[in-house]
Amino acid sequence: MASDPEIQIKQPRTKRGQVTMRKLLDAATAEFGERGFHEASISSITSRAGVALGTFYTYFQSKDALFRALIVDLSGQIRADASAAIAGELDPLAIERRALHAFLEFASEHKEIYRIIDEAEFVDPEMYRYHYTTIAGRIAQRLRDGSKNDALRADIGEIEAWAIMGMNVFLGLRYAVWRAADDAGLDDVSRTANELLERGLSRGTSETAR
Amino acid sequence: MASDPEIQIKQPRTKRGQVTMRKLLDAATAEFGERGFHEASISSITSRAGVALGTFYTYFQSKDALFRALIVDLSGQIRADASAAIAGELDPLAIERRALHAFLEFASEHKEIYRIIDEAEFVDPEMYRYHYTTIAGRIAQRLRDGSKNDALRADIGEIEAWAIMGMNVFLGLRYAVWRAADDAGLDDVSRTANELLERGLSRGTSETAR
């Protein structure tokens, strides 16, 4: 990935333009989430957004361009959500727990994100890769910061970042999107996953001694 | 998931029938992997398999039925591959390392499985869920066995199983399917991920004392 697709999404300059673009992106989330990319129509999206059909083309050149912008937008929402959840937290393991918990809540409230992001693998593979590569990059940066202050092992890096991202994505699929009534709550899920990150699965010496 | 879709796939009784079905499933792997479900055609699959078009319908009622059988088949191949890799291994953490390594090798040699299984989310959501639910079930069983013999913590279960599956899927995506020339080798990836499972990310007391 030589280029960062994020810079290709033009933001409207006026407040009113930003509001309209937000409406279109939210309508697109609902439309792509419910009907999938191929069945989704621009007229249905503008109708959901409550804007004129012609207005659409002021913002996006095509359905493909809108889809691309939507992946960037969802990635940004997930990032902003995680940032807010970990703000002020200094302990690197607590940061991962909070980030997972925030993601599980986000996925519970926006179950359609899985379908949209997973469809990008087929509709726009570059954006699919962009999405996961940028998230893994952020996790790797957090782990490096945690290593520096002696809380985490010094030898952790990109492999652990992809492992953690995979954990989080599948825990979200299972416990947010596919949630059953008698499932563990999101607090339990994020605490249990975090314990795995903290001390692994081995029965430690202290525990055996109990 | 009340019913197990696996039992719905009829196996041919004769050796010759089994060979033909294998050819059709392998041809379907190539066809769905390259062209995706919607673009894939039955005539192209029978042509790849070197069997007559009419023969197809002896085995499968439709492209949908073939796709369904293929997911069951790929799940079975992944299971058989993991079983062979962990045969005779008693240490539960070494079992997870070997299972991951076998999966990374399988994904390296069959990069199209990601596309096929991910497309099931759209083409046949029940099979998508079946695939991941059965894998998580197998991992959870291995973890319970490992807990019984005192090697693993006693309090681990389904959440850890989904976490491990997610790790493995995303490590396969990154280091097998999207592999770059200068990436860590599959041995390194499975060892590093296994260390995370063994002792977590924390800087242990022993390490700090060094």
Automatic annotation (TrEMBL), chains A, B:
Leader sequence segment: none
Coiled-coil region(s): none
Ranges where the HTH tetR-type domain occurs: 18-78
DNA-binding region in chain numbering: 41-60
Keyword Phosphoprotein: no
Keywords of the record: DNA-binding, Transcription, Transcription regulation
Gene3D superfamilies with a match to the protein in the record: Homeodomain-like (1.10.10.60), Tetracycline Repressor, domain 2 (1.10.357.10)
Pfam families for the chain: TetR_N
Record InterPro entries: DNA-bd_HTH_TetR-type_CS, Homeodomain-like_sf, HTH-type_TetR-like_transc_reg, HTH_TetR
Lineage: Bacteria, Pseudomonadati, Pseudomonadota, Alphaproteobacteria, Sphingomonadales
GO MF term set: DNA-binding transcription factor activity; transcription cis-regulatory region binding
Species of origin: Qipengyuania atrilutea
Record protein name field: TetR/AcrR family transcriptional regulator
Keyword DNA-binding among record annotations: yes
